[in-house]
Every structure is written in C-alpha cells, then in structure tokens.
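Supplementary Methods S3. Complex input for the guanosine-5'-diphosphate-bound model.
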Amino acid sequence: MERTLAIVKPDAVEKGFIGEIIKRYETNGLGIVGMKMLRLSREEAEGFYYVHRERPFFKSLVDFMSSGPVVVLALEGDGAIKKNRDLMGATDPAKAEPGTIRKLFAANIERNAVHGSDSKDSAAFEIAYFFNRLEMMR
Ligand code: GDP
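Predicted complex, serialized as structure tokens:
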C-alpha cells in the first residue's frame, strides 16, 4: 500500500466538480484516509509549491491556488502515486489522455483541476504539510 496527496484545485471546486473528481479516486482503488476543505493563504500556497519557486509561473500559480477553497485528500492504494498521476492526465489538459480528470475538467495548463504527488518523497512531504496524525484515519 502506498499513499499520495491529491488536491481538488480552486477552479474545479468553483465549477462544482468535487464529487465527480472524488468518485474517480474511489472507483479506481484509491481509498480516502484524510480529507479536508480549506482556503490556502498565499504563504501556505508558497510553502506547498516551494520546489517551483524559481519557475516563471510561480507567482501566478500561488495567486491561483490561494484564490478560493480547495479540497485536500490523502489517498491510499496499491501504486497510489502512479495510479493518481494516470487518472489525472498530463499537466496541460490539451495534452491529457481522453477520460483523464484534467481532460474532462481542466481549463488550461495552470487552472488544471487537480494536484497529485509525483514521487514518494513529495507524497510524504505533502501529506505531512496538510494532515497531522489525528486527521489521518489509519
Ligand atoms: P503537475 O505535477 O502535473 O501538477 O505539474 P508541475 O509540478 O510541473 O507544475 C505544478 C503546477 O504548476 C501545475 O499543476 C500547474 O497548475 C502549474 N503549471 C505548470 N506548468 C505551468 C506553466 O507552464 N504555466 C503556468 N501558468 N502554470 C503552470
């Protein structure tokens, strides 16, 4: 069993896609072990995306991620990190495979509906960023 961190980003929350997105996790072998809705401050969004701080789109990404509520989930399943990346599709929805979350629900490369950890190290950092022990169901 492996764990990964997923975020339903502000664009998808605003458009009413929370349920559609979470359904895809649950029907594809990703169980929910932690979940909360919150609104990130600029500082919290910067801390989460610290690895991207030198990228040209960093400020815009932080503005977007702190622009409205998000739903954060700790997901568990066999090969959860890759499974979630496959369900999400490519960063740019125009390049995402048919049927993926980003192809179905994302507007563009920045407002792309969901986040998913890209490695074991990022999953560990990201889950600990949002959830303490009491907020994890196992
Ligand atoms: P991910 O792992 O597929 O989410 O992609 P990255 O880790 O490369 O980028 C993190 C997030 O930054 C993406 O999910 C997008 O929201 C945003 N992003 C990535 N590339 C670009 C870009 O070229 N322009 C803009 N404006 N945002 C981007």
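The two ends are 12 Å apart (CA to CA). The pocket of guanosine-5'-diphosphate is lined by residues 52, 57, 60-61, 91, 109-110, 112, 115, 118 (CB under 6 Å).
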